Amino acid sequence: MPDVKHFDPDAVLEQVEQLFWQRGTASTGVSEVVAVTGLSRSSLYATFGGKRELYVKALRRYVEQRSRPVFDRLAADDRGLPAIVDFFDRLIQARCTGEHARWGCMVSNAHAGSESGDPEVRRVLDLHQERLLTAMHAALSKARLRPGLDLDATADLLTLLAYGVNLRSRAGADPSHLRAAVAAALDPLRP
Q1: Where are the beta strands (DSSP E) in the chain?
Q2: What is the DSSP letter of 51?
Q3: 183/181 Cα distance (integer angstroms)
């Protein structure tokens, strides 16, 4: 007879995602995961695997449910540079205020952590990078830009800027300084 789960695995994964996002994988122990979720170790291991597997699943969930919709919206937006400005405004707002203020981005945090050496984590990080780069490129391709601008290099620059905003916000950067840096990067793109 199959084991009946008395909990919602996705709800538990959301709790774990937030724990790893806020604290990082290296400083989060399984005992903290047990305390936050209210599940036993055996239920966690039976459902998700060990801490590494649980982290990878939480990271994938973050990318699919938090990052991907934002990237899809940016790529579909026909406004060009105003869409990119809006992307950065929302990013700074999300990273500096509200429930997840000063948590940074789970993906950026993973890039900076020891977990980035794990091949499975690296695949998730690379997928995130590719999606963000593709969305930036799509938005730039619809923009009125300075003639002769290299779209590929500019999309790379803006992608790196997004990661920088994420890391600096976690370190407590002033939102006005982040906005000024974004403006300095975007202003030379205009015709």
Answers
A1: none
A2: H
A3: 5
CA distance 166 to 164: 5
Domain boundaries, the chain: 9-189
pLDDT digits (tens, 9 = 90+) for 126-143: 999 999 999 999 999 999
Topology of domain 9-189 in CATH is Tetracycline Repressor; domain 2 (1.10.357)
Does the structure show a pLDDT above 50 at 1? Answer: no
Q: What is the reported pTM?
A: 0.93
CA distances from 142 to 96, 138, 163, 173 (A): 29, 7, 22, 31
Mean pLDDT for the chain overall: 95
Ramachandran bin of 80, using left for φ above 0, alpha for ψ from -120 to 50, beta for the remaining angles: left
Is residue 41 a contact partner of residue 30, using CB atoms and an 8 Å limit? yes
- The pLDDT tens digits of the residues spanning 17-47 come to 999 999 999 999 999 999 999 999 999 999 9
Residue 58: alpha-carbon gap to chain centroid: 12
Q: Would you tell me how many other CB atoms lie within 10 Å of the CB of residue 160?
A: 15
Contacts for 163 with CB less than 8 Å, ≥ 6 apart: 105, 108, 111
Identity at 130, one-letter amino acid code: E
Helix 119-141 with 68-76: angle, nearest 10 deg: 20
